[in-house]
Amino acid sequence: MAPLLNPYLTFDGNARQAMEYYKEVFGGELSLHTFGEIGGSAGEEFADNVMHAMLTTPDGFTLMGSDGPPGMEYASGNNFAVSLSGEEEDTLRRYWEKLSDGGQVSVPLERQMWGDVFGMCTDRFGVPWMVDISPREG
């Protein structure tokens, strides 16, 4: 599968409602995972907040989103990122190296608790990026 580029929206505790609304608007399949399902140190107050949501529509759109993680202040302007994802590890690592060069890495590109290799950075122009490398299937 070729790498995918799509928007990733961050919400202030209402990601579930927003993503369900977008499903009504665009149709498709919506998957939601909460901080409580994933585990970690989010705490009880964030257990029901959405850690990751993905809407895949019949028209080929992919929209991702989540509630801001604990400790990250929500403000208009920091509520989006561009997400690159897929199984093409060499390609995605090459994108990561170029995007993070001269920028600021907030999450190093490394294996995460859900099994993917994931990283977050802001490029030299102030654009936030997320790179997620999924294990190849089969």
TrEMBL record:
SUPFAM superfamilies: Glyoxalase/Bleomycin resistance protein/Dihydroxybiphenyl dioxygenase. It comes from the Bacteria. Coiled coil: none annotated. InterPro entries: Glyas_Bleomycin-R_OHBP_Dase, Glyas_Fos-R_dOase_dom, PhnB-like. Transmembrane segments: none annotated. Residues 6-131 form the Glyoxalase/fosfomycin resistance/dioxygenase domain. This is 3-demethylubiquinone-9 3-methyltransferase.
